Amino acid sequence: MKKLLGLMLMAGITAMPLVAHAADTENGADMQKLDQRLENAADVLAQIQGAKDKSIPDWIAAKAKCIAVVPGLVKGAFIVGAEYGQGVVSCRTPHGWSGPVFIRMAGGSFGFQIGGSGTDLILVATNHKGMQDLLQTKFKLGGTAAVAAGPVGREAQAATNLSMQAELLTYSRSHGVFAGVDLSGVTVSDNTDDTVALYGGQYHTFDQILYGHVPPPHNHAALHYMHVLHQYFGEAAAQAQHHDESNNQSNEH
Fold first, then answer.
1. What is the pLDDT of residues 115-136, one digit of tens each?
2. Into how many domains does the chain fold?
3. Range of the domain at 124
4. Is residue 223, in this structure, part of any structural domain at all?
5. Residue 243 pLDDT > 50
6. Which of 28, 71, 75, 143 could bond to 40 as cystine, CB 3.0-4.6 Å?
7. Most confident range, picked from 18-32, 118-132, 195-209
8. Can you tell me the distance from the alpha carbon of 198 to that of 196, in angstroms, rounded to the nearest whole number?
9. pTM, whole model, 2 decimals?
10. 18 CB-side CA count, 13 A
């Protein structure tokens, strides 16, 4: 009996490093997925905003409070007859863009509008209410959150009904075509597990992160995503402010 217990103890001790190694390997694989999601989101923003005639207009980019990017939405995955995707959100703070958090999107039936799988989605919160929507644990577009298909093109004129009523402007890119899309009926929820993993296992509320109270993670993919946000949306805000100041000076003279 003692010999059997001894063998079992030795087997357990031998297995412990293997279990730890397996856990480390799994955690490493998970982080690779998160890094790839951030890199894909950064690529989507850079490619769309790099196309001057088919991009989010400067006046929207300048007033954006938060940006959500869902790269590669998959049709019919996990939810039959609907769409499912994993995305990234960051919000503008007095010190620049916040660290990112992860979200899920599910439901709805855009069908022909986005052409099925492999579709990238972008949500732009244009006011404080839109930001508050993204801070919720779960909400439905077109339900508790007023949404509208966003206009496209750098020189697109500001539409009064959009700027005054919509909390979130929504866009899609499918098969190289970028356009505004109606996402009413889609549910957006936070992805706490992936967000905790990105911040080294530390739990922070979405409010804390998106209001800029939590430093960005020391993660190359996250910092690259934030850099792209600043490049295309931070500069738009700076240019808009400079334009307003120039107009004010002209009016004074």
1. 445 688 899 998 888 888 888 8
2. 1
3. 64-243
4. yes
5. no
6. 71
7. 195-209
8. 5
9. 0.76
10. 5
Residue pointed to by tokens 């958090």: 101
**DSSP 3-state of 220:** helix
Range from 49-53, 72-76, 80-84, 186-190 that averages highest in pLDDT: 186-190
The tens digit of pLDDT for each residue in 101-112 reads: 999 988 765 443
Locus of tokens 């063998």? 7
- Side-chain-facing half-sphere of 197: CA atoms under 13 Å: 16
- Helix pair angle (2-50, 220-229), 10° resolution: 20
Note whether residue 80 is domain-resident.
yes
Task: Give the residue among 74, 70, 65, 105 at the shortest CA–CA distance from 88.
Answer: 70
| Cα–Cα nearest to 133, from 149, 122, 120, 146 | 146
Would you say residue 184 lies in a domain?
A: yes
In a domain, 32, yes or no: no
Closest by CA position to 183, among listed 101, 112, 121: 121
